[in-house]
Amino acid sequence: MSEEDVYRLLERVRTYYQHLSRSDELCDEWFRILKNYEVSEVNENLDKYLSVERNRNRIPMPQDLIQDLWTIEECQQSQKSYIVNCNLCKRPMTLENYNKHYDRCSSIHYLLQIMRLQGIEVEYKDLASLNDNKFNVIYEKYKDY
Ligand SMILES: [Zn+2]
After folding, report:
1. Which residue of 29, 31, 55, 67 has the lowest C-beta tally within 10 Å?
2. What's the pLDDT at 79?
3. Residues near ion ligand 1 (Cβ under 5 Å)
4. Separation of CA 138 and ligand 1 centre (Å)
5. Closest-CA residue to 101 (of 123, 72, 132)
6. What confidence category does residue 145 fall into, taking pLDDT thresholds of 50, 70 and 90?
7. How far does the centroid of ligand 1 lie from the alpha carbon of residue 73, in Å?
8. pLDDT tens figures, 122-132
9. Ligand 1 center to residue 84 CA distance, Å?
10. Where are the domains positioned within the chain?
């Protein structure tokens, strides 16, 4: 969350708890705790907090609004290590590597078809092992056949 996000969040909280003070210190402290979290998730947690009857007269603390949430960094880490299978070649890989792989993989599948039609003996691994420059030269050469 940005400072602006935290400021807006506090304005939201104040519509329910009008006696919440309006000070820079309060804003700074909330920002210090909430800055590593996603604004939409914190706002959702405020909705949940507000929906609980016994919270009617209890001003939320920033800690109440990050319960069960992952920090932005934790989310990114978990995405990096999340394993997916390419739906073209079925190889497993991390989500972080998927987009780059998929671009190359779909190009290779396309080239293999064209090159084999022309009687050129080539294997998936031959094209997969090329660096980007070499691969692009071959791709440009055959793609329009
Ligand atoms: Zn693949």
Report:
1. 67
2. 80
3. 86, 88-89, 105
4. 18
5. 132
6. confident
7. 28
8. 999 999 999 99
9. 11
10. 3-77, 82-142
Q: Is the pLDDT of residue 32 over 90?
A: yes
Gap from CA of 103 to ligand 1 centroid (Å): 9
- Comparing CA positions, the residue from 117, 110, 116, 118 lying closest to residue 135 is 110
Q: What is the mean pLDDT of the chain?
A: 94
Burial class (CB in 10 A: 0-12, 13-18, 19+), 86: middle
pLDDT over 90 (residue 144): no
Scan for tokens 């998936």, then name that residue. 124
Strand-pairing partners, residue 85, are: 92
d(CA 84, CA 95): 6
Contact 65, 46 (CB under 8 A): yes
Please give the structure tokens belonging to residue 92.
């497993």
When pLDDT is cut at 50, 70 and 90, the band that residue 115 belongs to is very high
pTM (2 d.p.): 0.61
d(CA 53, CA 51): 6
Share of the chain above pLDDT 70, in %: 100
CATH number of the domain located at residue range(s) 3-77 in this protein? 1.10.8
